[in-house]
Every structure is written in structure tokens, then in C-alpha cells.
From TrEMBL:
Gene: panC
Pathway: Cofactor biosynthesis; (R)-pantothenate biosynthesis; (R)-pantothenate from (R)-pantoate and beta-alanine: step 1/1
A GO term for molecular function: ligase activity
Subunit structure: Homodimer.
Major subcellular location class: cytoplasm
Name of protein: Pantothenate synthetase
Keywords from the named record: ATP-binding, Cytoplasm, Ligase, Nucleotide-binding, Pantothenate biosynthesis
Lineage per the UniProt record: Bacteria, Bacillati, Bacillota, Bacilli, Bacillales
CDD domains for this protein: PanC
InterPro entries from the UniProt entry: Cyt_trans-like, Pantoate_ligase, Pantoate_ligase_C, Rossmann-like_a/b/a_fold
Note: The reaction proceeds by a bi uni uni bi ping pong mechanism.
A Pfam family assignment: Pantoate_ligase
Length: 288
């Protein structure tokens, strides 16, 4: 595995790979790798000649009072996991490399951000779109891989690629979960023991919501009430429990087409998010 720190070096290496006709699978991360990240690498390894991973805790996507400094980091462990997992090129720039001077242009995301996490994290997805535009330009990927745990981010990336006619295929990958259903996340290490016992309620609530929709419930408010009732049994504070069309993230009543049920719960030192996608067949009628 090659490890690269500078924009110039990664760009030159990617140009050489593309000249050789090699396909490039890119997995952007903020590090502290877990099985969820490695499932993206596994998929990229199957699909491409070269697998590139970036590890960069992007300061631009953290707002005031958020956990940029506290975000878990372990680059030595991550380097070993990446190498063992089949990553060919590991890109680990410093913030000064990515944002060395005051930027002339940054991205501003206009849609799919006023709900869910974007509602309470002003500017977050502008930071995500800005750094991904930089990373996509540096790595020239054939395909990019994102976990569906952050489905809103996937929706934003979908818009970024389509709106700017990027010649990149977006590959969403199913959320990796613990045996009890908790979505794997770098932030799970911040849960207290009793909170870790409660945390699977997020997925249980989502499953119950999906079950209602599949049984014919088309009133989003009724589904949300059931989801919230399950989340309310935890000691965490419910940030949101919402249902939108996907990937547009718009209100739809009655529920039709592809929809996302998404939840966020704030525990003492960790904010957990999770979601489930439900496809409603066009010919499925609402139960009376």
C-alpha cells in the first residue's frame, strides 16, 4: 500500500493509473475505521483495479460547538486496517494541504439539506460538498463508495455528481450493523455502557416504521408516532424522527415511491443517526 500526503502526489499518481486504463474505486473517510468502512473497501476491491482511501477529518463540515477536536483518531491503526483490507493508495492530507489558503470558491448545497441532520448543522453539507469536490478532482475516481448509514450525505453526493456532470458512478453500500442491530459508527465508542444497551432501539424503531408502511400505512404522522414511541424509551434526546421521499428528501403525503425513515438521538457524548429505505410499489393500495 502506498501512503500519500500531498495533493500534487496523489493527483500525479491517479493520472498515471488512468493513462494505464485502470479503474479507480475511491472510499473517502474521516478515519477511525470500522467494519462499515471496510465493507466499502471490500465492494470497491471487487469493482475496480485500484482502491484509493482518503482519511481526512474535514474541519469545514464541523460547526461551532461540534466535535472536531474530539473526533476519534488513530492513524496507525487505520493504516494497518486499510493495508489489510486491500487498499492500494491511502491519502492522508493535513488540513493545511486541503485548505492552505483562504478559498476563492466553496460549494453551497441548495437542496436536500434543510431536513434531518442538515437542519441543525448549518453549513455542514457545504463543507462536505466542498471537500468531496476537491477529493474527486484529486483522485479522478471511476466509482465512489458511501455507506447508507448517512443517507442524507449519499443524497447530497448524488446531487453533486449529477449537477456538475461528474463522470463518476456513485455506489451506495448497505449499513453495517452490530449483532443487535446498532449501526456501526466511529462515535459508538463514546456511548456509556447503559447507553450502548439502549442504542439498538434506533434500528428497532426503524424496523417498526418500515413494517407499518409495508402493511399499508400511508400516513407519515402515524408512522412517526410509532417510531418516536420506541425511541422515547431510551435515555437519549430525540433530535428527529422523520419520513421523506428519497433521494429528494421532500415531504410526501400520502407516502408513495421510495421513502426514507430517518432518526437521530443525542446521548450524553454521542449523537447517533440511522435510517431505513422503503420502496412502496406503485400498485400497492392503502389498506382500509
Amino acid at each position: 500500500m502506498i501512503q500519500i500526503h500531498t495533493a500534487k502526489d496523489i493527483q500525479n499518481l491517479m493520472k498515471n493509473y488512468r493513462k494505464e486504463g485502470k479503474t479507480i474505486g475511491f472510499v473517502p473517510t474521516m478515519g477511525f475505521l470500522h467494519e462499515g468502512h471496510m465493507s466499502l473497501v471490500e465492494k470497491a476491491r471487487k469493482d475496480n483495479d485500484i482502491v484509493v482511501m482518503s482519511i481526512f477529518v474535514n474541519p469545514m463540515q464541523f460547526g461551532p460547538g461540534e466535535d472536531y477536536e474530539a473526533y476519534p483518531r488513530d492513524i496507525e491503526r487505520d493504516r494497518q486496517l486499510a493495508a489489510d483490507g486491500g487498499v492500494d493508495v491511502l491519502f492522508t492530507p493535513e488540513p493545511e494541504e486541503m485548505y492552505g489558503q483562504e478559498p476563492t470558491v466553496t460549494a453551497s448545497v441548495k437542496k436536500r439539506t434543510a431536513v434531518l441532520c442538515g437542519r441543525s448543522r448549518e453549513g455542514h453539507f457545504d463543507g462536505v460538498a466542498t471537500v468531496l469536490t476537491k477529493l474527486f478532482n484529486l483522485t479522478s475516481p471511476t466509482r465512489v463508495y458511501f455507506g447508507m448509514k448517512d443517507a442524507q450525505q449519499v443524497a447530497v453526493v448524488d446531487g453533486l455528481i449529477n449537477d456538475f456532470f461528474m463522470d463518476i458512478e456513485l455506489i451506495p453500500v448497505e449499513t453495517k450493523r452490530e449483532e443487535d442491530g446498532l449501526a456501526k459508527s466511529s462515535r459508538n465508542v463514546n456511548l456509556r455502557a447503559e447507553e450502548r444497551q439502549e442504542a439498538p432501539a434506533l434500528y428497532q424503531a426503524l424496523q417498526r416504521g418500515a413494517e407499518l408502511i409495508r402493511a399499508g400505512e400511508r400516513d407519515p404522522e402515524a408512522v412517526k408516532r410509532e417510531v418516536r414511541s420506541i425511541l422515547g424509551k431510551t435515555s437519549g434526546v430525540i433530535d428527529y424522527a422523520e419520513i421523506y421521499s428519497y433521494p429528494d428528501l421532500e415531504m410526501r403525503e400520502p407516502l408513495t415511491g421510495k421513502v426514507i425513515i430517518a432518526v437521530a438521538v443525542q446521548f450524553s457524548k454521542a449523537r447517533l443517526i440511522d435510517n431505513i429505505i422503503v420502496d412502496i410499489p406503485a400498485d400497492q393500495k392503502e389498506d382500509l
